[in-house]
Specification:
Helix content is 54%, strand content 9%. By secondary structure, it is mainly alpha-helical.
Length: 198
Amino acid sequence: MSTTLRITQVGSPIGRTEDQRATVRSLGLRRIRHTVLQPDRPEIRGMLRKVSHLVTFEEISAAEADAFRAEAQARRTPKAVPTGPRAKDVARAAWKGALAEKAAKAAKSAKAAPAAAADEDGVTASAEPVVEKAAKKVAKKTAAKKTAAKKAPAKKTAEKKTAEKKTAKKTAAKKTAAKKAPAKKAPAKKSTTKKSEG
């Protein structure tokens, strides 16, 4: 029974020779910490010897290889994502369903502990108020998010506009003043050489 090699890239081929880069790619490695399975054959062993400073490898059994392949396939399988004009509605319904499940679990836990849910009269509270409270809480949060999203692109207030106008006027005044002011000349240096009398 043939063995399989689990090969993992640990180094970058950047700055390496072209044939080393091509060898890493032909092994099926795309990035650092990427792991692939290859059959244990002489040509694969030769490739591994050529780029031994960039990869690590180990021999694994057929059962381990099958488990690795199944896990990799599970990671590659895309989750169903709704698309189209009603995609938001479908996603929202799924989200509300998850919230309803949470509320139902909370209700079950409230029923499981009736002594903790007793009110002042000693009457146990039903699970329905718990579900209603959770639904109200969610409704408040979504309403708050919607209003915040609407306010986000709000216009500048009048105070900000006036402050910006003032700063713009000041900078313009400074520029014109700098242009109009005459340039000051530096005082002439006295010569330090002594004139010979003669």
